[in-house]
């Protein structure tokens, strides 16, 4: 079997502060196979974005990766030189952020920015072994050595109307949804193996959000790109992801296939998240918010980080670290870190 595209092993990312060390990512394991969309979901402050930044190698100082490893196609990104990492970033691994205005250069035309990315990370004359219809069109342009042409084709691929004309616009002339599409076009223009999308639709209204998620799925198929989708929004996960990891206070607390997670959530935090999320098909249902807040990630003094907010906690939960264990049906690949759950969802 081939290596996973991404394998995060026991990753620890920390930020020293005057008050102590913030353990933003505290022993996380996560795997993405080729062609998968894997969700990472949790409230804000749970460490999701720091995990994304750690994978891409853009943790801001004084933050640092204090332990563990990040393997990309079987090779450790942490053992590479900065130059090697730099050539992978933006080429084999791309990232899309919540706010495209922070990533697009306001003084450059949108088409120029995409063309520049193409020129930097790829020999546009050589990319030929591609399959999907959309890709053939794009590669057709690339073979002519025209990064600008390729930029226009990419804008067309993400359904920007009149891409020839719009490629000459500046970012401020695009709507929020179009800017996000342009970011996705830029991120995919190098045909990355992995796209890390951090809250890519959060700033957009629901209709545009749905369109962009649809496009991400279509583009994933066309470009054979695996996607790590980071969001606080369970509806986005339900819509888009093959598998889901639920993150709480620096740790993954549950992981399963999307359908399993929504039909049989086992960890009390996941159950709380689902109970507090509105659903279109069940609009009259009372929403039950999870009481309390994500804890300060400095020296959390209790073993299960969710214990003070958990409706099922007992004394043991404050003293004994919950290990990951199988909680689903045999062969379900459904795991949770809760002392009070056993195989097949047995309550302990
Ligand atoms: S270990 Fe205890 S506190 Fe933590 S989620 Fe399970 S029941 Fe709740």
Written description of the protein model:
Helix 5 runs antiparallel to helix 6. The protein has helices spanning 48-56, 82-88, 100-103, 110-121, 133-143, 147-157, 163-166, 176-188, 206-223, 234-240, 258-263, 268-275, 315-319; strands at residues 6-17, 20-32, 37-41, 64-72, 75-76, 93-96, 194-198, 226-231, 243-248, 251-257, 325-326, 335-336. The strands form two sheets. It has an eight-stranded mixed β-sheet, with helices on both faces. A four-stranded antiparallel β-sheet has the order 2-1-4-5. The chain is of the alpha/beta class. Among the domains are: 102-189, no CATH class; 272-345, no CATH class. Helices cover 33% and strands 21% of the residues. The protein is built from 13 helices and twelve strands. A hairpin with a 2-residue loop joins strand 9 (243-248) and strand 10 (251-257). It starts with 5 loop residues before the first strand and ends in a 12-residue tail after the last strand. Bound molecules: iron/sulfur cluster. Iron/sulfur cluster (SF4) binds at residues 267-268, 304, 306-307, 310, 312-313, 317, 322, 338-340. This is Nickel import system ATP-binding protein NikD. InterPro entries: AAA+_ATPase (IPR003593), ABC_Ni/Peptide_Import (IPR050388), ABC_transporter-like_ATP-bd (IPR003439), ABC_transporter-like_CS (IPR017871), Oligopep_ABC_C (IPR013563), P-loop_NTPase (IPR027417).
Question: Outline of this structure?
Answer:
This protein has 348 residues and is α/β, with parallel strands linked by helices. Among the domains are: 88 residues, no CATH class; 74 residues, no CATH class.
